[in-house]
Amino acid sequence: MSYSNITGGTSETYAASALIADTWYRRQVTSTIAGNACSLLSNAVKVTVNNLTPGVIGSAQTICDGDVPAAFTSTAASGDGAITYQWESSADNVTFTSIGGATTVNYAPGALNADVWFRRQATSTIGVNICTQASNTIKVTVNNFTQGSIGSDQTICENTNSGSSYERCPDRRRSPHLQMVQLT
Q1: End-to-end CA gap in the chain
Q2: CB of 178 within 8 A of CB of 148?
Q3: 138, 144, 38: which is closest to 89 by C-alpha?
Q4: pTM of the prediction?
Q5: How far is Cα 4 from Cα 22, in angstroms, rounded to an integer?
Q6: Other Cβ atoms within 10 Å of 19 Cβ, number
Q7: Closest by alpha carbon to 137, among 65, 173, 76, 88?
Q8: What does the domain layout of the chain look like in residue ranges?
Q9: How confident is the model at residue 178 (pLDDT cuts 50, 70, 90)?
Q10: Fold of 52-143
């Protein structure tokens, strides 16, 4: 193993900059008396970097109100330590909460009746060093609307108009396709 001098590293202590790879350090101490320089090396210490890539989870989905979305596929996290997972959900894409029991690489949610965002936390543990990173976030959009009403039962004479009025489906987010059907 070869060592190189650290520019500016001439004091009793040293604070390393951000690291992306394992790095060994040691200190060389020099004492000079009457022009005679003597140098000694300290013990070497290793700084182990707990590298972690959280992986990627599947893509956004749109489902009907009360349906079950397809299971989320994903790529596994990679890292130097033992990796564990925790899936999270959010109603607003800001505040996420852990989903009980959802601790595997992939996740299959239950039926949904509102839009929900999902992400997966990956944790890499080496000894007492714990590093956690979140995956990308995906949204499951729920197409929820009400069908409205078209009035009530009537009795009319043959060859006359029912005179009923029909109201449009009240929905704030979508423009549903309307199709009147007749049962004869």
Answers
A1: 89
A2: no
A3: 138
A4: 0.72
A5: 15
A6: 11
A7: 88
A8: 1-49, 52-143
A9: low
A10: Immunoglobulin-like (2.60.40)
